[in-house]
């Protein structure tokens, strides 16, 4: 038995200290021996045909793996659990949430189960040893189970931290719609609102400013635009290149003297090239945001007027 337990150790290590009856049998531990290990308080029964060492803490990852090990073949972590595995959306310690092929039956207390007709489109990947839907599929799934604000925050992080482009999101939406899948409203709304915008907000404050600009029906800005001043390259938070307008969104870290001095040097270099630089500071957000919107409107009107004069 000791040799069999040693053989089981690698399986337990990669599965959050869990092993199925079939896996135990594969290393020489039969059903009766599993029962004896439970009676001897060496293992505990986690579910039907599922075991693990006694006393191991039940983290959310372990609960998720337990559900997947006893679920129908093809099951994957999905929705809020995928968000937690990818560290996006601020989702912490979720209930086990999985997707299984449509037509399969699986129910467990405190496990959220989605039946899916299109798991072949799920962008399947292994995250920390756990089979899961991928980041592009998450953008399709998550909008139906979280708030609009959390959804937008999650998509921003998927784009910034996981390389999901606007085109990836559009293709995901179209591919799932062609398969006859219902839903996707949140992703459709995101595409309608943000698809034409280049770049990704780096912070929640930048996202807030971007939303205010979009809501004001202003021209489409570019995010994280690099500008070469000759002496140095600077990355602009939000820019309107055709207006030569930079909007810098300054969090509290910009309030110290060192940051202010660096900002002054950058502003002078940009202004020497003809750029207008507007700052939106977190401590005066409402006032600065209104001023920035007014500046964009004024410069856009001047631009349109100048184009009319040329025609």
Largest sheet: 4 strands, mixed
Low-confidence blocks of residues: none
Q: Classify the beta-strand content into a percent band.
A: 15-25%
* Mean pLDDT score: 94
Number of strands: 12
Task: Record the strand order, biggest sheet.
Answer: 9-10-11-12
Distance between the termini: 89 Å
User: Mind telling me the C-alpha Rg?
Assistant: 26 Å
Judged by helices, strands and strand pairing, the structural class is alpha+beta
Q: What spatial form do the alpha-carbon principal axes imply?
A: elongated
Q: How many domains?
A: 3
Which descriptors would you attach to this protein?
311 residues; alpha+beta; Endonuclease, Chain A; 3 domains; 4-stranded mixed β-sheet; 3-stranded antiparallel β-sheet; 46% helix
Description:
- With 311 residues, the protein is of the alpha+beta class.
- The chain has 3 domains: 2-55, no CATH class; 61-194, no CATH class; 204-310, VSR Endonuclease (Endonuclease, Chain A), CATH 3.40.960.10.
- The protein is 46% helix and 18% strand.
- It is built from 12 helices and 12 strands.
- It has helices at residues 2-14, 21-26, 31-39, 60-70, 80-85, 135-141, 148-162, 166-178, 185-194, 204-215, 257-272, 285-310; strands spanning 19-20, 43-47, 50-53, 76-77, 97-101, 112-116, 125-127, 130-132, 222-228, 233-240, 245-250, 276-281.
- The strands form 4 sheets. A 4-stranded mixed sheet has the order 9-10-11-12, with helices on both faces.
- Strand 9 (222-228) and strand 10 form a beta hairpin.
- Helix 6 packs across helix 8 (166-178) and helix 8 (166-178) runs antiparallel to helix 9.
- The radius of gyration is 26 Å and the shape is elongated.
- The model has no long low-confidence stretch (mean pLDDT 94).
């Amino acid at each position: 038995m000791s040799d069999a337990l040693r053989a089981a150790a690698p399986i337990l290590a990669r599965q959050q200290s869990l092993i199925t009856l079939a896996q135990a049998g594969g290393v020489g531990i039969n059903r009766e021996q599993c029962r004896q290990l439970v009676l001897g308080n060496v293992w505990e029964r986690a579910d039907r045909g599922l075991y693990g060492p006694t006393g191991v803490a039940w983290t959310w990852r372990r609960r998720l793996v337990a559900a997947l090990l006893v679920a129908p073949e093809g099951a994957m972590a999905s929705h809020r659990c995928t968000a937690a595995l990818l560290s996006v959306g601020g989702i912490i310690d979720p209930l086990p949430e999985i997707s299984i092929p449509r037509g399969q039956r699986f129910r467990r207390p405190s496990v959220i189960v989605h039946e899916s007709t299109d798991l072949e489109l799920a962008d399947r990947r292994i995250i920390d040893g756990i089979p899961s839907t991928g980041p592009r599929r998450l953008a399709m799934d998550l909008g139906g189970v979280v708030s609009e604000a959390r959804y937008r925050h999650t998509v921003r992080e998927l784009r910034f931290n996981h390389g999901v482009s606007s085109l990836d999101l559009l293709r995901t939406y179209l591919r799932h719609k062609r398969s006859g899948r219902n839903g996707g409203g949140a992703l459709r709304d995101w595409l309608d609102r943000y698809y034409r915008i280049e770049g990704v907000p780096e912070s929640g404050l930048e996202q807030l400013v971007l939303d205010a600009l979009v809501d004001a029906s202003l021209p489409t800005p570019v995010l994280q635009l690099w500008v070469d001043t000759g002496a140095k390259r600077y990355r602009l938070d939000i820019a309107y290149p055709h207006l030569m307008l930079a909007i810098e969104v300054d969090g509290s870290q910009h309030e110290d003297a060192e940051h202010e001095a660096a900002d002054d040097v950058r502003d002078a270099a940009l202004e020497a090239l003809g750029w207008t630089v507007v700052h939106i500071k977190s401590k005066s957000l409402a006032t600065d945001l209104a001023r920035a919107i007014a500046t964009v409107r004024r410069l856009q009107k001047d631009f349109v007027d100048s184009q009319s004069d040329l025609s």
